[in-house]
Amino acid sequence: MNVTIGISAYNEAANIGNLLNALRNYPFEKIVVASGCTDSTVEIAKSFKDVKVIVEETRKGKVSAVNEIIYNAKGEIIILESADTIPSAFCFKYLLKPLDNLNVGMVGAHPIPVNRLNTEINRIGDLLWKTHHQMALKYPKAGEVIAFRNKISGIENTAVDEAFIEFKLVELGYKIEYASNAVIFNKAPETKEDLIKQRKRIFVGHLNLKKQGYSVRTMNTLDVIKASLRASKNPLLLVHGGLLELEIRNEARKSMDNPIIWEMVNTTKAVK
């Protein structure tokens, strides 16, 4: 199958070189959309000769970058990978395999954070991704890295591009799958401020998607609680993480602003 991998980037100099180096041996069409970057992201991306770099001189947000990738992609399958992640050695083998089934329209990878578990916030971030994994094992969902059939013309204004693509492919009658062996490494936020900023943006995006008629499974609070109990047996961590998530969701419901361009979460940017 012909594959295009697309990466949207805003000031990702800390990791973009490591990511593109990890992709060097894959026979994919590679596209980086650098949107309003003020660091060396563009220069680093252009140093990789097999990478097509599309430069947006002003920052237009991730929706614009994803649409540029979809518009320019030649592959029948598009992989969207967050610029602040690193794929494991066999990630794409496992990620693409479910698409052999023509009824499958999208596959999500398995993010694993690299943070040291030496602070409460790092442990909560780790719990969130382990809960995501437990949810996805039962109700396939996606985050950080997805592979999907090139069957949509683009996405509309949203703060949750993966969930929006899921919505559109489900509308077309496709199934969503989760490839638990398709491990990618990311970094969870390392400050409470960054964690709240990230989680609030995601939840607001899910709330706005629900208004359009599609509800991701993590909107079901009971399912999230059950998944978190499978993810951890540490009662204190579960209580602290649950209370913080509840606080974030309550704040998100008050604002309901759907951010198209959002603040960087700086403590997630260097995956080592």
Write a concise synopsis of the structure shown.
This protein has 272 residues and is α/β, with parallel strands linked by helices. It is 41% helix and 20% strand.
Query: Nearest-angstrom radius of gyration?
Result: 18 Å
Global mean pLDDT: 93
Question: Strand tally, please?
Answer: 8
Distance between the termini: 31 Å
> Largest sheet, described in full?
8 strands, mixed
Given the structure, what is the number of helices?
9
By helix and strand content, what is the structural category? alpha/beta
Uncertain runs: none
Which word captures the global form?
A: globular
State the share of residues found in helices, binned by percent: 40-55%
H and E order: EHEHEHEEHEHEHEHHH
Strand content: 15-25%
Name the strands of the widest sheet in spatial order: 3-2-1-4-7-6-8-5
Question: Can you walk me through this structure?
Answer:
This protein has helices spanning 16-22, 41-46, 62-72, 91-96, 120-138, 161-171, 192-211, 221-231, 235-255, and strands at 3-9, 29-35, 51-56, 77-81, 86-87, 104-113, 145-149, 175-186. It is an alpha/beta fold and 272 residues long. The longest helix is centred in the C-terminal third of the chain and has 21 residues, at 235-255. It is globular, with a radius of gyration of 18 Å. Helix 5 (120-138) packs across helix 8 and helix 5 (120-138) crosses helix 9. An 8-stranded mixed beta sheet has the order 3-2-1-4-7-6-8-5. The mean pLDDT is 93. Strand 2 (29-35), helix 2 (41-46) and strand 3 (51-56) form a beta-alpha-beta unit. It starts with a strand and ends in a 17-residue tail after the last helix. Helix content is 41%, strand content 20%. It has 9 helices and 8 strands.
